[in-house]
Amino acid sequence: MVNEQISFEMISKAGEAFSILVKALEHARNGKLELAEENIKNSEILMNEAHNLQTSLIVNEANGVPNEFSVLLIHAQDTLMNTILMSTIVKEMILTFNTLRKEMVCNEQ
Fold first, then answer.
1. Cβ within 8 Å of residue 14, ≥6 positions away
2. Alpha-carbon distance 53 to 98, whole Å?
3. Fewer beta carbons within 10 angstroms: which end of the chain, N or C?
4. Over the stretch 41-50, which tens digit does the pLDDT of each residue have?
C-alpha cells in the first residue's frame, strides 16, 4: 500500500474514532454510561487500526524503504495524535462525571 492510501486510511479511521469519542462524552454527560463505554471500545479499535497503519510506515522505513512525506501524511499523523489525546481526555471526563454523580446521590440522601 502506498503512503497516500495509508494516509487516507489513517485519517478515516482516526477521524471516525474522534467522532465516536465525542458521542461517548455526550452519552456519559446524559448518564448513559454503557453506551459511552461501548463507544470508547469502538473508538479504541479504530485507533489501533490507524496506529497499525502508522507502524507499517515506521517498519518500512526501518527496513530501508524511504517514506514520501506529504501534507496528507502529516495531516494523517496529526489526526491520529489528536484522537489519541482526545481519548485520554474523554476517559478522564467520564470518570469525573461518574464521581460527581455519585457525590450528588450521596448528598441527596
1. 46, 47, 50, 76, 79, 80, 82, 83
2. 34
3. C
4. 999 999 999 9
d(CA 50, CA 80): 7
Conformational region of residue 31, where left means phi above 0, alpha means psi within -120 to 50, and beta covers everything else = left
Residue pair 6/75 in contact (Cβ under 8 Å)? The answer is: no
Give the separation between CA 9 and CA 73, rounded to whole angstroms. Answer: 10
Q: Which H helix or E strand runs over 31?
A: none
Instruction: Give the catalytic positions in this structure.
Output: 75
What cell was used for 71? 501534507
CA 68 to chain centre: 25
Question: Cα–Cα distance between 5 and 68 in angstroms, integer?
Answer: 12
User: Do residues 24 and 43 touch, judged by C-beta distance below 8 A?
Assistant: yes
